[in-house]
Structures are given as structure tokens and as C-alpha cells.
Design brief:
With 63 residues, the protein is of the alpha+beta class. It is built from 2 helices and 3 strands, in the order ββααβ. The longest helix is centred in the middle third of the chain and has 14 residues, at 25-38. α1 (25-38) packs across α2. The protein has one domain. Helices cover 38% and strands 16% of the residues. The protein has a 3-stranded antiparallel β-sheet with strand order 2-1-3, covered by helices on one side. The protein starts with a strand and ends in a 5-residue tail after the last strand. This is Putative small metal-binding protein. It holds the Pfam family DUF1059. InterPro entries: DUF1059.
Amino acid sequence: MTRKVADCRRFPSETNCTLTITGEEDEVLQAATEHAVSVHRHQDSPELREQIREFLEDEKALA
């Protein structure tokens, strides 16, 4: 299974967040949602989770 990456640096924020989360898709989705709610003050919702899922990228293999 390909690991996924959620990288806050891709999105401008008031806090200039630099957090990157890597792992299996379900783990990253859960952690990124919790981060978005607790740090960026988003409301947890199915819509937020779908938006996060859409911006997940495959982890690039280390050479």
C-alpha cells in the first residue's frame, strides 16, 4: 500500500504551518483532520475530511 502525505505548507495559513503528516491513508486523514480542527479552527465534517483526502499525495520513494 502506498503511504500518503498531508503537507500544510501547500496551503497558506495565518500560522504559517509547516506540519507534514505521513502514513497510511486512514491514519493521515484522521491526524490531518484533528490538526485542522485543533490548530486551524476548522469544523470537523464530512466535507472537511473529503477536502483533506483530495489534497493527500503519494509519498515519494527515497532513492
